[in-house]
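>> received
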Amino acid sequence: MPRFLCLVCLLLMTARVLALEPMVVKYISSNVGIKEDYYLELVDTALKTTEATYGAYRIDYSEELLSTALRRELVLKGDKMNIDRIAGFNKKALLRGGVIKVSVPLLRGFMGYRIPLIRRSDQARFDAVTSVADLRKLALGLCIGWEGDIYQKDNFFVTETSNMMMLLEMLVARHIDFVPLGATEIENFYQVDNQPVNSLGPENRLLIYLPLPNYFYISPRYPELAKRLSAGLKQMEADGRLETIFDKYYAERLRNLHLSQRTIIEVPNFEDDGSYPKMDHTKLKNY
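>> returned
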């Protein structure tokens, strides 16, 4: 067989093998006490929706305590993880690195609703909070890379640490007074070093709001994954499946938090670029 025909055959065989290789999503969770089931179902449904166009896929999911800075570095490289979910508007540092934003908000704006995680014994202190000025008198804690700069810009006293486990330890030890967690994320019970900490729980009457959409970001080494997820999520948004999956995971939780009965304290977000409309708080009555 002529040499060039051998080369053509080899190229065709290689292309066929590559075509059979599944598209791989490398997803790592580092949020202690915060389940990723909702986001995993969004990814899985979006990939399944686009299977006819893009072919087979595989989701490699793992859990590992990683700092926010390390997560950003890993998603840029794309070897260990190639997808991350990040709250906020356009993250300039990420975009400069070429990370690709999938422009479909994942939580229907509810990421902006925050409930303080507190020591249950401090509820009386929070009962006295009626304004953003009152809230500024309390020390809050966040992980590095979260929205700490937003609170600092609005004159809050903010302590930042590398991961959620350390935040819980600091709250228990009274180094901070509260951790503002998303209404979709906050749980009733937490663990530190695999031991239940019954002294921590959601505050009963406040609801902090700041504009804060949540998006998937994809490694620049995986542009086809970004296109595929974008196509799948947009289809899910259009046909109502995105809302259905949201309600499946969060409707009952949000109802139990009695959001519409809480005192709303608004914190401005200096990063707000107007790309996502401000929430209509009256919609909280739906939950």
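>> The CA atoms of residues 259 and 285 lie 8 Å apart.
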